[in-house]
Amino acid sequence: xxxxxxxxAQWGDEGKGRVVDLLSEEVEVVARYNGGDNAGHxxxxxxxxxxxxxxxSGIIHPHTLAMLGNGVVxxxxxxxxxxxxxxxxxxxxxxxxxxxxxxxxxxxxxxRALDAAQEAARGNCSIGTTGRGIGPAxxxxxxxQGLRLGDILKNDFEQRLQQHLQAANHTLQALYGxxxxxxxxxxxDYLPAALALRPYIGDVGQELHNLLRSGKRLLIEGAQGCLxxxxxxxxxxxxxxxxxxxxxxxxxxxxxQPAERVIGVTKAFQTRVGAGPxxxxxxxxxxxxxxxxxxxxxxxxxxxxxRARRVGWLDGVLLxxxxxxxxxxxxxxxxxxxxxxxxxxxxxxxxxxxxxARHETLPLGPSxxxxxxxxxxxxxxxxxxxxxxxxxxxxPQAAQHFIxxxxxxxxxxxxxxxxxxxxxxxxxxxxxxxx
Length: 435
Ligand code: GDP
Ligand code: IMO
Ligand code: MG
Hints:
The chain is an alpha/beta fold. Helix content is 28%, strand content 21%. The protein has three domains: 2-104 and 200-263, 3-Layer(aba) Sandwich (Adenylosuccinate Synthetase, Chain A, domain 1); 108-196, Adenylosuccinate Synthetase, subunit A, domain 2 (Orthogonal Bundle); 266-428, Alpha-Beta Complex (Adenylosuccinate Synthetase, Chain A, domain 3). The protein has ten helices and 20 strands. The two termini are 31 Å apart.
């Protein structure tokens, strides 16, 4: 029985998709436990680029089974479109390979309209959501009034969907003064899409339990990053699900059991899409250097929304926090190649608050960071491009030193580093005491 969990150790977009793709070769089952189509996970295979939003990235390996657990929120229109895209790329997507939990909640057109109305109402304090209806869908779940995938199998689904849309229209108009939904159109688009998912719906928790008992290996793919976790992230500038590794089993309907590896994916620098605190953020030419101009597919523009990502130096204080709250056994460091050509590279090692108090750990979590300034360690950069390198000993000394400093500052070993988006652009990192 093997469980491997992969989570984002920052604010999302760390490169989880490419890491999951790599690890999927060695497992039979891949599963998503949180979030919805707010996620955008990129996998690059030669001249093919896959952008996955709901379906676990491991589906690209033809031998895998893919599962969406009860912790996920599913928009049938988005899921069907993704299934179609993957089929067009030559993958087999059928009810034997893709299973959806009966207890996962549905995202409806009403949730998307409410997401937009709530963001507009927040004005200057908007969160910068992806507009996919995530918050309102999880709100309905917590209020015990949501529609679940299992409801699609029941006779009164059409009627319940209609009632849900009518109630949302009332809220949209009365609370937000927003345009109301065209219920007739919404029903015409959404109902057939929801019904088309019927063959895929089952008890994912039971199926996973059986697979694990029969010796199958399970790779769990987190969406978003732990700093976007509803409770432990930079609240209220967070998403509405549990994004940490501790939520993985609960979001799949599995009981508590050990995970062999809990892998945190982190970039060699820091990025964030949307609003919220970001102590190591940089601006101007320095930011453009880290972000890229948009000419390369890996430049820092959102996979789901295309928004320019905010960028900054790697934040070691937040990385230590990520190691703690996820119980990470190891880190995988991505986008090391982007730092080539910089004279020096910075890592925040602690914060100073109100110019006086020094903090090695977050004083009150990642929400209250407006009064802190990062204290940086500056290490020498390297000029060589890294994209063609495949072995630790070929990395420039300065890059090796940077990786070793990250391990020490984070208190967690770095097991692999990636030097480009391609499946093959990965380097194993030896244990610090064996190198
Ligand atoms: P995810 O949401 O965590 O799966 O990450 P995204 O796919 O949203 O964003 C990561 C971006 O970085 C994608 O465009 C990847 O193709 C790209 N990427 C991942 N690893 C590397 C790397 O080592 N080097 C470069 N240059 N790009 C990478
Ligand atoms: P992956 O899985 C980066 C951010 C949004 C916004 C906040 C809330 O690709 O790493 P939401 O639509 O979830 O209510 O938005 O969370 N956000 C992400 N940022 N990567 C993601 O997913 C994200 N999913 C949500 O930008 O700030
Ligand atoms: Mg992403």
